[in-house]
Design brief:
This protein has a twelve-stranded mixed sheet with strand order 7-8-9-6-5-4-3-2-1-10-11-12. Helix 2 links the parallel strand 2 and strand 3. The longest helix has 15 residues, at about 55-70. The mean pLDDT is about 90. Helix 1 runs parallel beside helix 2 (about 85-95), helix 1 (about 55-70) crosses helix 9 and helix 3 packs parallel to helix 5 (about 145-160). It has a single domain (about 20-335), classed as Alpha-Beta Barrel (TIM Barrel), CATH 3.20.20.70. The protein contains ten helices and twelve strands. It has about 325 residues and is an alpha/beta fold.
């Protein structure tokens, strides 16, 4: 198709999609070793000089918000809570005009201690990863016995007003695929919003097997045996989760079916890695460097122009079902969710 020139002040691509949701990875490091993400021994971490500084992150987020129409900013990792300057970064982004909505995706370890400070700094809400309620399974999955810390983090986030508190769960066949109803009961009992996520081919070990993946249909069947689910009448928009009302509502449960029900045509996300690379998709095989331009003296207008140019190259879809699909070189921990 012929490509129209980019529109001033927005991050639009050749297919008419506009990116308004920015995912910012603050670090590739993590204090868990989830089996579907990284090996037990961890990964080679990015070198300190390669990481964006706090001020560089705030400046690039400012370019996205003030010049490119971004309205949502989510901080991710790795594990963003281990970034020493997190609270200061949140406060600086909350001070931008226009102010974006600010969220955080975390494993929840230590969240109970910092949630009040993050809320005071301007954080609006959190997503916390929790794949099992069984302490032994948690230890096997994450290779760390930290389930009580995650549960404390969830409670602390809710107490600090970081609502809605969303829980992200990945089910794996033969490991925790029997826990869908229990996880939903837990979320309903505590006032959390549960989202199941299909396991994606973003593990560092390249061990993902589509045939072994627990699909959205399987998840919904398991939930439907325990609850009455009806499609959520609310407009989904660009949200990645399809949602259902539980037992008549108002509680909802969502499924992010990136593999079996891709939503690429409505994608409104752009990503900034911890080392200053722009990625248009979790599964992109190419990146665009903003760190080099920033450190080379580029002004904000030039940084915005480069970001727009990178966005124009966004593909129509992730292509997981295409025989030519190539997994990205970076694992999820180095991309940011």
């Amino acid at each position: 198709m012929s490509a129209a020139p980019p529109h001033p002040g927005v991050l639009d691509d050749r297919y008419g999609r506009v990116a308004r949701d920015l995912r910012v990875s603050l670090t590739d490091k993590c204090n868990l070793r989830c089996s579907y993400c990284m090996p037990a021994e961890g990964l080679p971490w990015l070198a300190g000089p390669d990481l964006l500084t706090d001020d560089e992150i705030v400046r690039l987020v400012g370019v996205a918000v003030r010049r490119l129409g971004v309205t949502e900013v989510r901080f991710t990792g790795g594990e963003p809570l281990i970034r020493p300057g997190l609270t200061r970064i949140v406060a600086a982004v909350a001070a931008l005009e226009p102010r974006p909505r600010i969220s955080l995706t975390t494993n929840g370890i230590g969240l109970d201690r910092v949630a009040p400070a993050l809320a005071a700094a301007g954080l609006d809400r959190v997503n916390v990863s929790l794949d099992t309620l069984d302490p032994d399974r948690f230890a096997r999955l994450t290779r760390r016995p930290r389930l009580p810390d995650v549960l404390a983090g969830l409670a602390g986030a809710l107490a600090a007003g970081l609502a809605p508190v969303k829980v992200n769960s990945v089910l794996m066949r033969g490991i925790n695929d029997d826990e869908a109803p229990a996880l939903l009961r837990f979320a309903l009992a505590h006032g959390y919003e549960l989202r199941f996520i299909e396991q994606m081919p973003l593990d560092a070990q390249h061990g993902w097997d589509r045939a072994a993946m627990v699909t959205a249909d399987e998840i919904l069947t398991a939930l439907g045996d325990a609850f009455a689910l009806v499609p959520d009448p609310a407009h989904r928009g660009a949200a990645p989760a399809e949602t259902w009302l539980v037992d008549g509502g108002p509680a909802r449960v969502g499924v992010i079916a990136s593999v079996t029900r891709p939503f690429c045509g409505d994608c409104d996300r752009t990503r900034l890695t911890a080392d200053g690379q722009i990625r248009n998709c979790l599964f992109a095989t190419e990146e665009s460097d903003l760190r080099g331009a920033l450190r080379g003296g580029a002004d904000d207008a030039e940084l915005a122009r480069r970001w727009q140019q990178a966005t124009r190259g966004k593909r129509a879809g992730h292509g997981i079902d295409d025989p030519t699909f190539l997994r990205p070189a970076r694992p999820m921990s180095a991309i940011g969710g």
